[in-house]
Amino acid sequence: MTVESTAPAVTVAPARQRRRPRLGWNATLTTGVCILGAIVVLSLLIGLFGRYSTTDVGDSLLTGPSGSHWLGTDNLGRDLFTRTFGAARQSLMVAFGATTLAALIGIPIGLVAGYNARRLDAVLMAAMDTAMSIPSVLLALVLVSVFSPGMWVLIGGMGLIFVPYFARIVRAPALTVRERDFVSAARIAGVRTPVIIGRHVLPNVLSSALVQYANTAATCVLVEASLSYLGLGVQPPTPSWGRMIFEGQRYMKDDPLLVIVPGITLAIATAAFGLISDGLQEQLNPRGKRRTP
Amino acid sequence: MLRYLSIRVVRSLAVVLCLSAIVFALAHLVPGDPAALIAGENSTPQLRAQITQQLGLDQPVWSQYLSWIGHAVRGDLGSSLLDGQSVGTQVAARLPVSLELAVYAAVIAVLWGIPAGIWSAMHQGRAKDRVVNSVAFMGLAVPPFVVGTVMVLLFSTLAPAWPLFSFVPFSQDPLLNLQVLLLPAVALGIPFGATLCRYMRAAVLDVEGQDFMRTAAAKGAGRRRLMLRHALRNALVPVVTAGGLQLGVLVGGTVIVEQVFALPGLGSLIVNSITQHDFTVIQGAILALGASYVLINLVTDLVYPLIDPRIRTTGARRDG
């Protein structure tokens, strides 16, 4: 028997570390997805079929709820309902854009660090830890002070800021998977490292990454709102929950809805991401410890 | 023990150095000539060249960085590009306000978050647990500036006598100072406490399943002694780790809450300087706020050996 004929006999074990989690009905996850879906659908419908645009200025100022303006108008006569859901578009675009960017950069870093271990791992993780030791709002402030604020700066900046969180969360399972028999088998069988990482390690870290995705998206919604509140995020007249709350503050004694409506919608959107994160956690890791954000 | 301490101190220094490099580098990426900004739009080239030389802007970047950081270590953060005021003086006047707010908020968070987490864990799965969980969940979803704004609305209509936008230093009138800072501290303390509550609940539930708890119960320890003496001490270790990491969110939160309540802290200085493109002030203020956060974190690291004796002997840190 030659060496060549024995090599293919080594079978590569399936990539899944454990049995595929049973996809049952999960109340927490379903509620979160439904709320988020409702916000997305409403914001799209209003953008397409709404009677007003988010920047339409009207004659009736600070009217309060009425038949023509369901939630009333702001100090420039703009429709509050339209603006609140128009702001949802900005907010979710920033959240998904930034989080996706962070995941696309962070997951490969975490995989490489976890799989290669030793020196590269030490260097990469030291860099990630240092970056995480700086409060993210401060980093965001540095970025917007240099580049003039706007949606794309928010997406790019926050995307970079949250890279270490993905790298960290992915590294731990990557380290464990590395030691598993099916990975050693693949290595002995001569499978190249990038293929092992892509086919065997990546599927095993995806569940952690997915939970982190929901957590990070929630944080992005909050950071975007905070920066916009400070005037350093989405720029007027484009609506944003943070900016609407800031602008409504001056008139809130006359019309508290100007502050309360965007505030509550913001909270509901964040809570939806929180529910999705908690639900995914239960779903993917039912016996394990329940982590907090 | 000594090894543990030295690693922590070196790491903190590395973080501060890294932050200083980021702050310095980004301010130099800004398009436009700082000399032109100082001298004004219609200044002569000679004047600009003179200012460039004075500020050392003609030197290579690394030597500018070294001189900046060298001065910063001695407390000299340069002077404002706009009015020439010393950045160090401004930062020194405002830093205590931000730090007091952060500490106040942390105290409020610990006061409600930790007991709520324990209480919720003791009634796991029952209605009380679900109520606490929902409250903590909502606390995490509503950002501090929304809570702050709503509180301003409520207090200005229901309790007009409450001092809202008038800051008084602690040294001048401690009671009034604590009253003025109460609302901002509560606004910040709600989400931070919610985080602590969730961590605490998970940690207590985790500890309750351990063997030593059963042993202690079998030896006849009462429910109260079991909780206070055996469970809490072990449950606190991961909570301190996680809480320490969350302090950054708290420091970042002060920036925004100060704006809501018009407090004269570092946050409002940073925000104002950003809108006015006053880069020396932005650099100095962000560096000071970041450095004080690192210092707070270092202090939490030093608290560790007190609650976890394993660190005292081995120097290893169990990251929970």
Explained architecture:
The complex is a heterodimer of chains A (293) and B (320). Chain A is mostly helical and 293 residues long. Chain A has helices at 3-6, 27-49, 80-116, 118-132, 136-146, 151-161, 163-178, 181-188, 193-229, 241-249, 257-284. The N and C termini of chain A lie far apart (56 Å). The longest helix of chain B has 38 residues, at 223-260. The model of chain B has no long low-confidence stretch (mean pLDDT 83). Chain B: Pfam families: BPD_transp_1, BPD_transp_1_N. Chain B: It is a multi-pass membrane protein.
Q: How do the strands and helices of this protein lay out in sequence?
A:
The complex is a heterodimer of chains A (293) and B (320).
Chain A: H1 3-6, H2 27-49, H3 80-116, H4 118-132, H5 136-146, H6 151-161, H7 163-178, H8 181-188, H9 193-229, H10 241-249, H11 257-284
Helix pairs in contact in A: 2-3, 2-11, 3-4, 3-6, 3-7, 3-9, 3-11, 4-7, 5-6, 7-9, 8-9, 9-10, 9-11, 10-11
Chain B: H1 2-29, H2 34-39, H3 45-54, H4 61-73, H5 87-122, H6 127-141, H7 144-158, H8 174-208, H9 211-218, H10 223-260, H11 266-276, H12 279-307, H13 309-314
Helix pairs in contact in B: 1-12, 5-6, 5-8, 5-10, 5-12, 6-8, 7-8, 7-10, 8-10, 9-10, 10-11, 10-12, 11-12
